[in-house]
Amino acid sequence: MRSGLRIIMRSAVLASLLLSLTSVSSAYYYWIFFPGNATSQRYPAKFDLSTMPDRAISYFISDKGPGKLVDGDNYDALVSQIRLAAETWNGVTTSDLRLRFGGFSTVDALQAAPGIDVVFDDNMPPGILAQTTPSMPKDVGDLTKGPGFVPILRSRLQLRSDLTVKRQASYAEAFFLTMVHEFGHSVGLQHSTVSATMSTSRTRATTKARPLSADDVAGISMLYPTATFAASTGSITGKVLLNGNGVNMASVVALSLTGTAIATLTNPDGSYRIDGIPPGDYYVYTQPLPPAQPDEGTPAAIVPPSDSHGGSFAAYTGFAGQFFPHTRDWTQADTTSVNAGSTAQSINFDVEQRSGPTVYDMNILAYLGPAGKEAYVHTPSLVSGFRGWLVFDAPGTLLGSTAAVRPGLKVNTIGPAARMEQEFLGYFTSGFLYSVVDANAVTQPTPVALAVTTSDDLYVLPAALTVVPSAGPTISSVSGSTDALGNATATLTGDNLSSDTRILFDGAPAVSVQKNDDGSLAVTAPPAIGGHVAVLDALASDGQTSMRVMGTLPLPTFTYTSPDHPTLSIVPGTLTAGTDTMIEVDGFNTNFADGQTAIGFGSSDVSVRRTWIVDRGRALLNISIGPAATAGLFTVTAATGIQAVTLTAGLQIKPAGAQQMSLRVPVINAATGLPGVPTGGTAVISTTGLPSNLSGWPLTINGARVDYTFDGSTSTLHAVVPPGTPLGPNVVRLLSPNGDAIAPILFNVDAPPPVIQAASGANGPNDAAHPAVPGDVITLDVTNLAGAAVFVPASSVHVSVGGVDQIVTSLTAVANSNVTKVQFTLSSGFPDGTQQAMTVRVGTRVSAPFTLNAAVPAPAVKLSTRK
Amino acid sequence: MRVFSRLPISLAACFLAIAPVFGTTLERLSLADMARQSTSIVRARVTGSRSAYKGSAIYTYFKLQVLETWKAAPHSANRMATEVAIPGGAVDGIRQSVTGAPELKSGQEYVLFLWTSRSGLTQVIGLSQGRFSVLGDLVQRPPASELMLDRSGRPVEDRAMSLSIQDLRAQVLQSLRQTPGGAK
Questions:
Q1: Angle, vertex CA A88, rays to CA A86 and CA A89, nearest 5
Q2: pLDDT tens track for A446-455
Q3: Under 8 Å CB-to-CB from A629, ≥6 apart: which residues?
Q4: Whole-prediction pTM
Q5: Region A538-556: what's the mean pLDDT?
Q6: Which residues from chain B sit within 8 angstroms of residue A367, using beta carbons?
Q7: Predicted ipTM?
Q8: In this structure, how many other beta carbons lie within 10 angstroms of the beta carbon of residue A484?
Q9: Residue A173 is nearest to which of B22, B117, B119, comparing CB atoms?
Q10: Which of A211, A371, A616, A617 is the least crowded, having the fewest Cβ atoms under 10 Å away?
Q11: List of chain A residues whose C-beta atoms are within 8 Å of the C-beta of residue B121
């Protein structure tokens, strides 16, 4: 695939990549709309997930790939990095948004449903490398009567076709973080100034190993919150005023000593609200946005908020920064405590007028790496005990274009993790200053903010550097092989490698990583086509990566050998708009794998609802085709690891019929409401377009006719799954006596559900005389926990008490039995009552309720004394 | 004992030797770069605008009354560009917003460094880099804050640009004289 693109000889130089969106901005921020003149109620732009099957937004990569790639890069590697970047946002568990790879598509093809298009287009003037454009309705209407947001209709993420411009190599960390950044724009995030991935590259402090900061997480989670996000975080509110007047688009930041920085921008009346703050103590500061730069239309390149009449509210930047309350010295600042589910209010600022910020947009570097192979590393990770040079530049630190340091300039670290030795602050060269920094002992990776003060101003840069407890990973050698089936294994040697180290082959994670006795890693590589040369990167949980640590040493690579190029076919190849249906995807020389293979159909009007991987060459899917889907031919894509296989024009969509009939996915278990039904259980099958009388319409499950009832009021079929129906995907088919086509669908037959046999606490069996109280460790004896699976991890077992989810802490199999002991610590918050319904769930298999005797302890009585 | 890490004697040499592992740089174009890479350079007044789709992207096309041409596209059978496209705008009920897109105001005079793609779309170089506002006898462009590297990889400092139109014209023409087929 991607024929016509040459694989060019590798070079060792990494690319740096620039966004066209240059400015730094404060906090997570969205495209904001105000209703009329009311500027205290914000309406952001975002995708309407309620209109999307499974609340997922599909993204597509143009089938016209880039015209030129950097030496040593290739298209499959590029696609894998783009997919990894999108997947990064899926890893935010407090966000309800999921990005799904929809495959390769034709640019500008008409599609009714929302989506994101990644295109390669050189219709960009020199100086611009990437550009993301969300489309929204021009007329937002009465915002107060709508769903509470302005819907993003589609987003276009444009890269250059010529990726040799500024050497945009896909294996470079900068490229990956740029893609994460651009995907953030595509779903509604604007820029951040707190060194997040949504900041511009100059101040961004994230890495490939830790690609999202707390501000990024808060930003996406507040825009697309899960049900529990708000309750688990807190807020800070207040106002920024100048001579009693509100300051618009002032940055207000909550900064903890552990490096968490989350921020927002004020409204035109000066009011602000920072949401999504993890509980803890924070310094709060305000500072203006930096001036608009040559390639920016507005300060920080943030599109200012609009009202429903099309008016906008420009940022005000004419004030000096300060910590709360009213100090430029962080050591004199108060901290604000943030608790989950509550708001710290009235954190107000009365700022002083200035012509604009003195210092801004600071860029930090350290010279790190193996002796003789050092390189300048941006926002470096410094190991505890490090003492050495830090190099930085920022407008305002020097007098004009001289080498004179601005009088009164001080650069200090905030917090105890590091210390700047002020006596070394001085001019270095080429507009850069330097100083000496000491990294102190830490037990966890700790981002460190810098406070830059002048005689009358303050500038804070969060996460300017990170202090880490130990050195990062390196890869010194890679050896391995690929067998005839395409299974690749590799042995990696290096320093600071562990079984927790994530190994990337281009943008695809290794399938498994195990540490050998000699310290090397045995790695199962993700699939790729024969001849592919993958660049490896080792990622540590503290944010360090081998690429950042290894300086200018050559990049480690792995070369895949045979088999021949894989191919795809699908059955059926023609589908109808407005229907749900099953599809079989067959691959030759493919490596389909459960949880690793993404199959897409090149259109946001076609949604993959569920995939069953039968074997490396066969996959079964349920898909939904939107009723307004455009008729035509679409490309089918199956991507596993670095391997992306396509079937051009493999799927044809026909327009919907006048009375289109369809079975609907998912098929639900009547007892649990979940999409998995055991034999003997009742399957509920939704339908559309069927007549009210279905006599003479046979229903089959796995080819066997079954009895059913039809509830016309809900348009659902109810059928008992016959004994003997095999586990896994089974075909459901309704046959019309008239021969009308009704596409079959799949549903999953589950193993029997787990059964709770007993519950006990520290004092013995749980009963009315020995109820459990919050904080108690409860042990359940559960049979049939794993069902048909060989192993279930604790993270996949869910215990619910009175509807409140509990965290399972351990699973212990009892030898020579079918019993697993499931342990959890009882949390509070369950409803009143001494008998709580408790269930255990693994996937869609849910136990029958078991009664847990519980009690809520009486509150402690506070004794008062009289004098 | 804490060990002092050693900085290279020449920071510039290090930038020259390698691209930083995580260098975060803009490809900021110098005046000479913009002069050379532009397909045309005009001093013009904006007289109107319209928005339209080009493929799936919306552009706002600003009509230009060209007052002075400093560089014309060589061997071009087409007339000098009288429209410049800025990404973003609103058409048929759909709005697209491009962060960083420059603003052009009707009635305002600018010096514009323009680049015309093979498809014929004429845009301002670097979103806003090639846009200078004309205020009386002066042209203005704010300074860059980003780390800028020159072609050799050395960091360079950018400054706010505020100079007379004559000086800007002279610098542009000088750059073009050094380029084959440059100045008008």
A1: 75
A2: 999 999 999 8
A3: A111, A112, A113, A577, A578, A603, A605, A606, A653, A656
A4: 0.87
A5: 94
A6: 5-8, 14
A7: 0.75
A8: 9
A9: B22
A10: A371
A11: 123
